[in-house]
Amino acid sequence: MLAQICLCITDNPYTTLGVNSHATIQEIRRAYKQLAKEWHPDKNKNPEAEEKFVEIKKAYELLSDNDRRHIFDRHGVTNEDSHFLKQKHDYSGYNRFGFDPTEDFFGKHFFFDQDIGLYHKLSVTSKYFEQTILPKSSKKLHIIMFYNDWCFRCTRIVGAFKKLIDTLEPLGIHFATINAVHEPSVLRKAGVDEIPKMVLVLDGHSYVYRDNTYTTQKVVDFIRKKMPFHIVKRVNDENVDDFLGGWMDNRVRALLLEPRGTPRLRYLVSAFAFNDRVAFGFVDVRSKSTKAIVERFKVNTNLDTLFLFNEDSTRPIASISISEIPTQTLTNVLTSNQFLTLPRLSCQEMLEGVCPAEWNRPRKRLCVVLITENSVEHDSARGTLRQIALQSGYSLERVRFAYMFKEKQPEFINAISKGSFDDNLLRIVIIWRRDNTHIKYEWIYGTKLDVRNTSDNPRENVINTTKTEITHTIQRLLQTSEALSYEAFVQNLLDEHAQGVITKWIARLLYMVDYLSDNVENEHLLAAVSLLGTIAFMFGIGYIMMYFVRAEEENLKAQGHLNENSAIKNNQQTPELKLYELRAEKYNGMIRLLKPGCRTVLLITDYQSRTKLIPHYHKAVWPYRKNKTLLFGHMLIEKGLSWYSEILRLSLCTNKNLQINPRNCVGTVIALNGHRKYFCMYHAKHPESARGTKRMLKMTKQLLKSSDDPEIGTFLEMSNSEESDSESKVLLEDNLLDGLSNWLDRLFEGTTHRYYINYWPDFPTK
């Protein structure tokens, strides 16, 4: 099953031959010969061998053709019949531009003095921009020119653009063009507002080149300005040891020594490409603060020098000294020495670089990994394995040494912990990555890396014992017939160097500031400053006015004209519940013209009792203040006696005039429904108001008769003597509204009696 997975046809010729996209033609030819011998149908009896051999041959044919390889790198096209490979028709024979009427007056080739075909040759699509250029911009710089076929300015700068390509492309900067008419989405995302326009794509961000002059020096200065400031660190005699000794960040140290104040652009581009693996430091050999470095490493101050340091800061592992280091040479040296002797597997990309996947058993690559913790106590164990790696003598193409923090990669450790290190944390495992998810592994037993240097067991014995065990296991596993004991499917490693939330926000803020500084013109800046100044001026005036108001208040308080109680009263809000007095001018609005579903609750008082009854009434109806269908008011019986007598007469359906004592009407509450012409009545002496008490007495009597418990009456606070007292109790004026709350509950439940009338009589005007 695994063999079928590995033999599946792939559309990527680089993957088929097992080389990277930067491989030279010699490396491609060497990989092809090796695979062709292995998968030739006459030698390999695998049923998929013939199909695999054809795939290898097609991949070699594509990559050995410079034109086809260039088109595949840009457009991902592998088909030989693609329109990219078809020859364009030559129109030169038609001599369409053989005679130009403007030639004699303006000079030869006034408009078409340059070949716009250069734009067509480098043109890419939005898909290629999104899927290739943006992801690669984290390590490679890309310059994009937006153009249009009918843009005369575009044709006039073709020569300058071609000169930029010839000058900057050898430095590792990639160029492409995009037709703004065909790809408007990319135009908007890049922030381009006109064409022609050149954009620098760097680490997923687009920076527009605003200058209209496309000279090499101005473009170089523009690129330098946009490069991250931390790519190259300035090193002098004071911080050189700290820089070279900072390899605990899992990066090799590169020291650039140049006889100038700033590093060359080609070195900055290389530093950006290898930033996650190599930390670059720049030394100006002409400065007085770097004399000790020059003496220490015997540097020729007239040449550019590169030193690469591994874990040993006293002796470089590689060095180059030349007047101008070529980009390809610099790339080859960095690629060969981009990992420490004992690197930490801190992310998936590091794992793929140190322990690349290899499904073929004869060519399997082994990785010796120490499982440890991020603590000082385990430094000795890592130092021991580092010394073993230096003394191993194995080819880096077959065996690599590394270590891993247990607490940083728990999922990977759990996947390979079968039959392993529960009893001892410091254990060594040898892994063979078949592909991105499938690995085979075997644990090395008998090692004691956690043993410290003692008289009974010195450090040399520990190193020799561990080295012997590792060497014996590696030699056995490198044999084609040997297989590793365990296998597992693992997920990608967690990226220990990933930016946190705060770091991401800071990076976005810096990019926003940079973007605004590039895109905001002077007039826009002046308008924004004017607006902010106006707002600040208004706030300042308001603050000054508030200051004088507070000073005046303090002055009035000091003179006694203003006290705290009066200030509190002035600041108090009016009650949410307002009581309206029923008068002739308000009669229609409060009763006759009420909307359906609305009612008016009216308290009847006289001049003598209104000051006592209205507060009690206000307290009783306060819970219903937010009800939009209720209107609360009060009426003086002296003004509305005739109206009140008339509605009572209409409710009793009698023609006789009623003789009513106004004093007995005090404390009555009536709820009037103006639309349906009925009202409900509350009065302390009204039978309906006392109905609740009578029901309670009746219930109490039944409980006393049916229960043998002599204390049941005491619990209900009722007795026979209390019943007689309540009937003969004198009702005072302050107690007239005691039962109003209960009556209001029954009113809104709909259990109160309704008195219907035929019409609403007129309210007296006097």
TrEMBL record:
<dbReference type="InterPro" id="IPR036869">
    <property type="entry name" value="J_dom_sf"/>
</dbReference>
<keyword id="KW-0472">Membrane</keyword>
<dbReference type="Pfam" id="PF00226">
    <property type="entry name" value="DnaJ"/>
</dbReference>
<dbReference type="GO" id="GO:0005789">
    <property type="term" value="C:endoplasmic reticulum membrane"/>
</dbReference>
<protein>
    <recommendedName>
        <fullName>DnaJ homolog subfamily C member 16</fullName>
    </recommendedName>
</protein>
<keyword id="KW-0072">Autophagy</keyword>
<keyword id="KW-0812">Transmembrane</keyword>
<dbReference type="InterPro" id="IPR018253">
    <property type="entry name" value="DnaJ_domain_CS"/>
</dbReference>
<dbReference type="InterPro" id="IPR001623">
    <property type="entry name" value="DnaJ_domain"/>
</dbReference>
<dbReference type="Pfam" id="PF00085">
    <property type="entry name" value="Thioredoxin"/>
</dbReference>
<feature type="domain" description="J">
    <location>
        <begin position="12"/>
        <end position="76"/>
    </location>
</feature>
<dbReference type="InterPro" id="IPR036249">
    <property type="entry name" value="Thioredoxin-like_sf"/>
</dbReference>
<keyword id="KW-1133">Transmembrane helix</keyword>
<comment type="function">
    <text>Plays an important role in regulating the size of autophagosomes during the formation process.</text>
</comment>
<dbReference type="InterPro" id="IPR013766">
    <property type="entry name" value="Thioredoxin_domain"/>
</dbReference>
<dbReference type="InterPro" id="IPR052448">
    <property type="entry name" value="DnaJ_C16_autophagy_reg"/>
</dbReference>
<feature type="transmembrane region" description="Helical">
    <location>
        <begin position="525"/>
        <end position="549"/>
    </location>
</feature>
<dbReference type="GO" id="GO:0006914">
    <property type="term" value="P:autophagy"/>
</dbReference>
